[in-house]
Amino acid sequence: MKRIISLVVAVCTLFCMTGLLGVTSSAADFSDYLKETYKDEQSGKSILYRLFVPEDYDESKEYPLVIFLHGGGNSDPENEAQLTADYSIVKRLIREDYLQKYPCIILAPQCYGFEDHWGKATDVLMSLITSLTENYSIDKDRLYITGLSLGGFGTCDMLQSYPGVFAAAAPLCGSYITSSEGAKIYAQTPMWVFHGAQDPVIPVEMSRDVVDAIKKAGGKNIKYTEFPAAGHNIWNKTYHMSDLYEWMFAQRLNQEIDQEPEDEKTLDVFKDVSTKSWYYEAVKYTYYENIFKGVSEDEFGPDLKMTRAMFVTVLHRMEGSPDSAGVSNKFADVPENAWYGDAVKWANSKGLVYGTSQTEFAPDEPISREQLATMMYRYAEYCSLDTSGRASPADIIDWNDVSDYAKQAILWSVNEKIIEGRSAKQIIPKDNANRAEVATIIKRFMDYKNK
């Protein structure tokens, strides 16, 4: 198994660097991370690390410790690259809203100097963690560890080397298991495993094998999320999932498990989505890709109208929920604390959506089919896709009903079979789109994008 891991490290490094090269880091985001070196006196080994301690740190309180292990492309003698990994957890958790909800201390060590192999750093890393628990007010029952790619393997290394230490673990696109005994060790720790089904770097079967082995070993707190259309770079999706943080920070050592957790929610959770529904595959895709959520715990609401705010949020999630900090809000009817606020600001700043007037966005207004087509067309251009294809207006029965601003978008979307007529090539452009239709359109768009 170590040989397998070594073989993927070099390729893994290249893929992880792809995320790094596309990052625009912000000094304000990371300036509060202490830049340190730790030396373990017993072994003589040293490890570079960055540490975040909340500004309002209070010694009378105990804080969870979150350990993030970076991927192969972020090994760095300057002790900086682990903070600038694209969409990393170390960025998400220092956002003001997350700090208020999940005040914690964050450790981001460096694998540099350990031959790009976290397995060779486990002893000094554990010594560092122990030192931090002695010098800071850290709740030893709430040590959480996560990592991506090379760091996913490192997360597994730490679990096997130090069983019973971590309250929760979340390895991304990098998990392995060597024996049934290893599965029993993993089973002691609540785990949420993530992988992309189309991963060309780390075979998805490795994570599947881990999950299956843990279940066979009696593990009762194992979750698995597999993104059907995703490749190796899944951290931009995973570390934006609010469910991950809610689950992780709820874990404590030795807590009783009241019931076996759900293993990667199935569509059975939606009582209004039958496997025989024409939109089943589209809802399944958008749900697992974290683009859509239900309108409640057990309802998807396929026939409910999609509002403008809802659809802009869908676009925002498709892009990985990019940060809109510093982007001004132009619309009086979009409150700063609105759940769709970041999405509207981002989409408007990129020219994907405009208001119904200079000062109004009309977030609660149902989105029409031609508005939807227009936003998808602009998003395709934003993604640098080929949007030159056009259907013939003669093929659209109600072409004269299409607004001028939407005509190019309608012709493109019909040509690419992203939007189809409801009957006999009748687009009905002014009609409102429901959630099932939008899920289907998103699935078709992604098929078009990935072809």
In a few lines, what is going on in this structure?
The protein has 451 residues and is α/β, with parallel strands linked by helices. The chain has helices at 2-21, 27-30, 89-92, 96-101, 122-135, 150-161, 180-186, 204-216, 235-238, 242-249, 280-288, 308-318, 341-349, 369-382, 407-415, 435-450; strands at 33-39, 46-52, 63-69, 105-109, 138-148, 168-172, 191-196, 222-227.
Highest-level CATH class of the largest domain: Alpha Beta
CATH topology of the largest domain: Rossmann fold
Q: Helix segment count?
A: 16
Which stretches are low in confidence, meaning pLDDT under 50 for 5 or more residues running? 1-28, 258-265
- Mean pLDDT, to the nearest integer, reads 87
| Helical fraction | 25-40%
What does this protein structure show overall?
This protein is α/β, with parallel strands linked by helices and 451 residues long. It has 2 domains: 2-249, Alpha/Beta hydrolase fold, catalytic domain (Rossmann fold, 3-Layer(aba) Sandwich), CATH 3.40.50; 267-450, no CATH class. It is 35% helix and 12% strand. It has 16 helices and 8 strands. The chain has helices at residues 2-21, 27-30, 89-92, 96-101, 122-135, 150-161, 180-186, 204-216, 235-238, 242-249, 280-288, 308-318, 341-349, 369-382, 407-415, 435-450, and strands at 33-39, 46-52, 63-69, 105-109, 138-148, 168-172, 191-196, 222-227. It has an 8-stranded mixed beta sheet, sandwiched between helices.
